[in-house]
Write a sequence for this structure.
């Protein structure tokens, strides 16, 4: 009798990067078995990919609706237990909703939905279902991000006074500066890509990282987008001033035209007693600053780390783990929840993170369009 | 017949840090001889300090007015040629004005004045005088800052799209979080410290660094200050959104409550072809980023550097130079100007930098007080 | 019909770190299916672990000999194709030999054997077998290590003049400084741990990295070990001077008492035209130094990298990959060889690396014991 | 009545880098007045340079012997008190000896002499003279080097087990690889440059740094030089194994063909409780490693630093000081000694450092020439 969780995959076939990331993450802790899938809307491609990676072809379905219909016919002990949604963004909501409505657990790529309205509907569906819903804000899986969260929770920084998170990339340069490309690529077409490019794709990760690590909620924001060209309809750069409770202020900086930046997600959190700084491209180093003591550099795997952090480290100190491991930690947390095992708050991002994220994205668009005014987030 | 320039010092006596910095800087390239001074408003302290550092006591004056009066009686070939103004901020303007009016060259600490209005009056006085006026925005003296400027000027980045400069310190924490201290220290008393603490003291350096390196002018700003406590009257943290010509946007981040940050001035400039990143605490490393090529790390003293950069390096590569050397480079530039020698644009910050800086400071205060609105700078 | 390679695992059960590393590595590129195993000499533990990670229990054998015997009874198309040997060191040789003699492919942890003599016997067995033999010198799987190799091969450094590789750890401090522990732990018992601790366990990785990246062979060595205590019988620190062809010299530094070092493997290679520096704890950064040009920082995933490097990168630049990915790349190379597909030299360490490594270890022991004399390696 | 010490300069005229370094260092703490000099063996050049930097020409002498003769005629209260010897190496000994014999204090560039024999004679002369003798091992002036020394002295590392110091440069590449240049340059001519190039010029700094920071003496060494070419007579690369008391071992690595290295002096000291790492090119960062605690990063100017360290810091944390400041700290220590003020052990390198250094250099040559054997240093 297998102990592995039966996992279905929606999307992520072929050379899909997100597909590789989720597959590897699902394998890493020996918790999941890919049991069925709709890797690709094209059935031949779907089957071919299943064969390539050795997924039993009798559980490869021609489309999502068939997937649900056929799996529901199976007895519960054979049925796929959880689905990973790796499809284009606009499909996240209908798929997640139907899955939850039918009692499947869900692991969903971000953005969770294409609007706050959808997000709230999904939130309701989730409440009714009682199923597990994990949103893959991948970066919360890094051991040193988790260490920040736990140390902040236990008071290592004292009262927080200032946050500064940033997500800088440069990859859109080759598109945005070319008039032909920028008018044709789906990424910059609001009909296909949603209401925001830069904030929706990456800025929201920085937002999530602030709320995840500090445990505080952002109250209101003021944003300024940059479209760079008159004929471009989507933000490729955006700075967001943020206000939190109790005179805490901060900012979220995001850009897709930060030339030469690769995947520059970073965060700095300044408190009364100390501060933390962390950068995604050197994820195994966490810097704790103080006004009076030497800076300390925390690394994964040491006994001085919290349980939440150590739970996400498989090897002794000095053996670098990367983004696969980070995603694997989220899958690990979801596995515990699916099995009804005890798990800690923070082991995977939740429905609430998804709702907050959509709220944030919509608020930044509203703020920018209204002339850079303060917009409150829902509490 | 001495070739050294006769230098007078106003302020900077005793243990004054700014005094040490300027004295050392004046010595480094063998260009200046400290010939007279009013180191201290207390005449005994003034004389004692002059003896301690071996400045001839017959040119130590009891106050600034006496200094000017007595020096003017001396024949031109004996008279002090240039004065360094290191006094409290509110004295910069009256001293600089009187010195310029009397034909002295001036090296002035920043902020140049306490208001834009004063700055413009000084600008007029300077035009009439024909004297040299150097503003010690110290950080523009670093060889790698100068290298950025020259490479940007020659097109290394292509069109600039985004700027992000930051100046984070944490030193005011010990004051601001203590109700007694924050209500009594002069730094947080608007009557003594001027209209801004954080932006006026450090944010303006970041502003200057952007304009110095890019050669672009900031058009308009939107700022958000943080006072942290209701009973505190001065900004201890401020974020400023900036707009420049031609859809260029950016931001200036400054804080005095960024716990554990020491003197964290940094700049990132993203252009169409490449980007630069530089940090004051590792001033001998300049990072050039590209979307398609490996990042390059420029260092001082190499033949690949520009003349402006090499002119500020005294030793072969690998011999770290620091902030004294940076200030010394500004003194070196001023010396060339004072002697009527050829010098390059950029060898020292000018009256215009001072006027722009005061404009920026006042605009940020206005923006914040008006509810975070866009305020245009004068062109 | 499955395309996955049938993989057997010997050792690595329970919480074994090396077990996790190999299992994850085998999953990452969807090439292997764990089909059978002797995870543990204790059969109950063996079975329990198989169930825990969902390996079919009918292919779980009570011991290695049974494993071979039973698998050989199976038709070739069902039989396990390759075995990963993760057992204690002294078992590597007999297991690898028997597997090769029976036509299994082998993936073997290092050290390959316990002596050069055994290594040569294995080399002969391998030649006869025609099977694939991959030695898991894990660090050669990092994309930037592979990039070094390829760039050196294509002349980026010119003639090499100096190599300096280092492997510093501090973990043995807690044992070595405690008289009771150092006399009882198997790691410091020559009967159990072989002829060398520090060189055998980690120094040999530095040796391998030099030969892997430069393509040069080390000719002769002079070593100096440190035992720290009179009653300790095994080296816990060793420095090795090395000589290569053509006046190239260098050194290998290794230590297990380098307090606070975690897994500090690094290499510097200095050539006539340029140099490379790389550190295992920041594996995604490769530094190329020049006397006349700015240092360049190479990172994985960019089009400027070689095919060998890019073949080991699954995600776009800026997504850190770690040691699991490095090991996975070795498994990927082995998979190509096992399937008879085309693969590049350097995709996995070979039998020759194993023989060279044993030769190196024995030579360092001989050199130290003979009073730090030069000892030639076999050519 | 001036309080500044009357300083004479021997050598260092014109564009001499060492001249700039010493002049600036002498100015930085307002302790010295350059009162006389023989900057240059050519009298016209000597006088011209004196005028250029404003040294009174009546104390500019045509040669060293005249310098001593004329200064001795002056009353003690006018006479030059201390001389800085910046001449070619072979002149250090005769000048220092004559100066000490005549009661002058001496600040001497390294290497102190050209042989151990000379060094010992000078040591005797020094003892008799009672004068102050400071050897400018510049790198001991860095605040964080001094912090290492003081923390080690107070037990922060516990018993030391391993040292690893390195001095890598690449500048000689352009000479050594060119047959014409390498046979003609004085640097590689034993008649002009002494018995060692690489060890004598830079390796000895690494040696000194080990003894300075640990307070331990190196007992014996085994060295291996590299000449790279048969027709080259001087070492351009050398590795030295070192043994100290009580089973402490270590190594000194030095190279002038380490392509792309600029001035790569570094040190790592591993003790029972903790370790220190420091690099000259980032001199304001000192890393303290532990097996069980997060690494700590010490920086200058903080209250947590020792008096010896803080005495060499003029500005608040975060204001980078460089090599001029480091040399200035040595001049500051010498000034205290010259004035008979209290100073700490370690404020400037001494005659003993010079004797030890020459002993080390000669021993490394002997070891290499005898076939890489162990050579004891004098105790």
């Amino acid at each position: 009798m297998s102990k592995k969780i039966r996992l279905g995959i929606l999307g992520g076939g072929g050379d899909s990067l997100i597909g590789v990331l989720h597959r590897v993450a699902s394998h890493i802790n020996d918790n999941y078995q890919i049991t069925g899938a709709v890797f690709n809307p094209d059935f031949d491609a779907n089957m071919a990919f299943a064969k390539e990676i050795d997924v039993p072809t009798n559980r490869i379905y021609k489309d999502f609706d068939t997937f649900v219909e056929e799996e529901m016919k199976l007895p519960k002990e054979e049925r796929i237990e959880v689905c990973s949604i790796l499809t284009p963004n606009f499909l996240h909501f209908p798929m997640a909703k139907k899955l939850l409505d039918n009692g499947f657990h869900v692991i969903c790529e971000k953005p969770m939905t294409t609007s706050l309205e959808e997000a709230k509907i999904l939130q309701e569906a989730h409440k009714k279902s009682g199923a597990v819903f994990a949103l893959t804000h991948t970066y919360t899986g890094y051991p040193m991000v988790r260490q920040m969260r736990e140390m902040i929770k236990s008071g290592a920084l004292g009262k927080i006074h200032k946050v500064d998170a940033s997500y800088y990339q440069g990859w859109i340069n080759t598109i945005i500066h070319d008039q032909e490309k920028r008018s044709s690529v789906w990424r910059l077409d609001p009909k296909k890509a949603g209401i925001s490019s830069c904030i929706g794709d990456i800025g929201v990760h920085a937002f999530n990282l602030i709320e995840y690590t500090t445990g505080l909620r952002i109250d209101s924001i003021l944003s300024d987008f940059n479209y760079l060209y008159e004929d471009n309809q989507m933000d490729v750069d955006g700075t967001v001033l943020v206000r939190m409770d109790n005179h805490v202020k901060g900012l979220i900086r995001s850009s897709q035209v930060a030339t030469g930046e690769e995947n520059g997600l970073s965060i700095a959190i300044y408190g009364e007693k100390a501060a933390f700084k962390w950068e995604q491209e050197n994820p195994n180093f966490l810097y704790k600053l103080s006004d009076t003591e030497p800076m300390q550099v925390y690394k994964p795997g040491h006994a001085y780390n919290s349980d939440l952090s150590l739970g996400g480290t498989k090897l002794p100190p000095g053996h670098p783990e990367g983004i696969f491991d980070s995603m694997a930690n989220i899958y690990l947390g979801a596995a515990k929840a699916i099995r009804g095992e005890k798990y800690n708050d923070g082991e995977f991002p939740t429905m609430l993170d998804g709702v907050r994220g959509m709220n944030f994205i919509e608020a930044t668009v509203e703020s920018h369009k209204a002339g850079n005014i303060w917009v409150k987030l829902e509490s």
Chain D has a mean pLDDT of 96. The domain at 5-131 of chain D is CATH 3.40.50.720 (Rossmann fold). Chain D has two domains: 5-131, 142-316+351-369.
